Input
Amino acid sequence: MAKNNIRDWDTTASNNTDIAGIGIQGTNLPSNFDNALRTVMKQVADVDSGVEPVKDTWSFCDTVDTTKKFRFDGGALTTATTRVYTVPNATTTLAGLGVAQTFTEKQIVSGTSASETERMMDVRDARTTVGGIGNAVFSVARQNSNNPAVTIGNDGNNAGLIGADNATLRIGKWVSGVFTDAIQVLTTGVTNFLGNITGPSDFNISNGNGEEIVLENSTGRVLLRSNSTTLVRVDASGTVIVPNTTFEGTVTAGNGAVSGSAASPTLSFGGSTGWYRTASVLRATYNGTGAMDISDTAVSIPGTFTVGNGAVSGSASAPTVAFGTGIGWYRTATTLRATYNSTAVLDITDTAFTVLSNATVTSLGTYNSTTATGANLVVQSTGLLQRSTSALKYKDDVQTVAGSMVDAFLSLSGVTYKSKCEGDDASKRHIGMIADYAAAAGLIELVTYNEEGEIEGFQYDRCVPLLLEAVKALRDRVSALEGN
Output
């Protein structure tokens, strides 16, 4: 094979028998060697001028240690393509793809395409970690330190990350070497916005759990939302609107001192309607007129207080006036009803005050108010509280107690017993009567029954008439024996 260029030269000397077809086998004419030498010089010149390339198998070595070698590889080039690498006008070191590299001078990446797909620089992460792991991809170290000041990466779930390493992340602008903060993300997780927030669309601040603050660019309003429901709205005029008036916790308006007036309340719902504080009360105002005063001892309403529209509204689980879920007041077809934990506990009508379900009535004030007058309150089996009376105007068909009833009463026995009632001390003995025994003796007038006709109690106060008749009979008998 003719050795037409340097690439054709053989590493075995005996195989190099010609130069571009000019024989140099030792048996050729001397002129062949002159022509061969000139041809060799041309082939070298072709390489030097770039006409003929050399193979990428050529290697270079260290001047001292020749075992230290390197070579260039052109295998990745497109067929029939020449690539040119320009050496910078400086003594420098080549950067590699598969090795960690330290750049000691700034690098400028200058692109020519305006297409987003033609990015000027791509840093790709080939790791396979998932599940919210923070993968650092690109970082900028702190001054005179190997510790990163800011890191750009991903979380393994297709989301990008930008953050500072245990330091405040400052985002802003440079002007003439002076940095001005627009946003600060502190190490505590608090984010400070130090400049104006403007843009073509709304600005949302969210905690990721459905709660968010929305700055509406088109209206200038500020919205506080929970799961897409607006809880508080601040209009561009400064008016604060709370669609849902159920609060949990403390709501503070003002600084605790006397503030506001009827015409300009501290907590305003528009114009002269709202709340303000006087020297002695919290006052509600409507259209500049005081409507209600609240102090630590009283609620004073000079006019009419109306809740609802007068129609049936609300339910046990969603009362019209609510003090929490299922706690408050609502209107039924016939009563005003109180509910607690979604259970109806109290009904009020124009004629009755009814405690519902298993609720009880407790009044420490009633207990502390004492009198020497005998008891006159009766609790019926329906729970109805009634005053006990004795005037003739409340009685009809009056008859004297029959002697047989006195005899039946005297057949009864007083007993001691231990109570099974929930409110009693089970270890204590009591003195009393057995209502069942009175009923068996035919004294049903002394017995109380429930709505199912079951025996419930013994009317001790009704024993007085029977005892009176028994004493009178005994008196007559004694008088007869004494001959009076």
In short: The first helix runs from residue 30 to 49. The helical segments are 30-49, 364-368, 403-410, 435-440, 463-481. The chain has five helices and 31 strands. The first strand starts at residue 18 and ends at 19.
